[in-house]
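Q: Predict the bound structure with iron/sulfur cluster.
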Amino acid sequence: MPKRVYIYTVGCQMNQLDSQLVADLLDQHGYQVVGSVRQADVILFNTCSVRQHAEEKIYSLLGRLKHLKRQYPEKIIGVLGCMAQKDGEAIFRRAAHVDLVVGPGRLARLPELLAQAAAGTRPLLAISPWSERSDRQTLLAGFEPFDPPRRPQHLQPPFQAYVRIMSGCNKVCSYCVVPRVRGPERCRPPEEIHEEVSRLADAGCLEVTLLGQTVNSYQYRSGGRTIRLADLLSLLHQIEGIRRIRFVTNHPRHMSDDLLQAVRDLPKVCPCFHVPAQSGSNTVLRRMQRGYTVEFYREMLARIRQTVPEASITSDFIVGFCGETEEDFQQTVQLVEEARFKNAYIFKYSPRPGTKAAELYPDDVPLDVKRRRNHQLLQLQNRISLEENQKFIGRQVEVLVEGPSKFGQKAPQTQSSVQLTGRTPCERIVVFPGDRGLVGQFHWIRITGATPTTLLGQLEQHPIEVASCRLERGNWLPVISQ
Ligand code: SF4
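A: Predicted complex:
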């Protein structure tokens, strides 16, 4: 009887990928992934530490398992990911029924750790040594890479995949725990990435999203040559079967011209850039140790728009950071007004223990002020997102149909025609009525309406015979064959 494992994941795409790789690795070790804690012999939480809220959620879920653990003491409960690395031993003190704590830099050891736990060796702690005084090499040695050979046949959905091209981060943003929980930047060899994407393509994958904390700082030196993201994109662009290539998350300091030209000239590379700005005030950016000024960020936006005019640009902002004055905030409002992002993720500052910001600066912006600024910026961004989306009404866009939309998921399985969802090359979400059989295919949709977050459309009944596409990506405008 295979051992049954349940994996619960919170956090970013990197965490989603780690959980997929853990599921695949354990499946290769005789485990079967199940859908509930009751069915499972092993219950794993893959955690996030970017905000306090994400951690509290896991501790409350762990609390709810206390009774189940008392009933079934043989069950193994494990905490993986960024909170595991950050809190380590403290998790056992807060939740004594946890058997296993495994950081991102130790995930490759999971099968062996689970075998030890099943044999009765509990609790088990496996995290990477970390100290502010350690040099880069020592830290790198502690954070073992976790890129086990994946079996594309287990990909869900089979036509889309995340691919890690680098792990960790070399930046020192004062509010961020990532370098401490995922270690220094480590770039994977391009051949290894090419081989992985080729195997995914052979198994029917159509779209890959390349992942890195600062993905555009990717560079790999070998044989006296330095491979940068632009080179890697050209390499992956040649892979038959792959139709779309995306990459997240960018850092403003690494938005090089060769990367922009690669996005402009390689049709499979999607013209969308996620580039967190975090603030529009130089005073705040300095305190955040972001390593650029708002003028630099504006100049970067201008270069993107000049080289890839049809690109969509999205961003992140933290409001209420230590010492943020009303004037600082108004500078952020001004940046958002002029930047016209497709959308932006806006967060209230949440001090993270162990970060420079928590050490150096008081969390002095009152919560109600944080809330008001968050609300104001969100309202402004939603207005801009709606206006930008309304420009698509009447146009035709090509989407990769990903599945039933949230609304469509409520329809009975027997109902063949439901509301489906898919994304354009520029990462706009489109919903439209259609047959479930369209999932995993590319289709043209005529846009009939828009909201700040979504385009509404109709399947193009008589898809226009596309002789070629005029380069206005984000929205391939077909040149109708005469
Ligand atoms: S770039 Fe800054 S915010 Fe992003 S992961 Fe690295 S340290 Fe954190």
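A: Confidence is low (pLDDT under 50) at residues 465-482.
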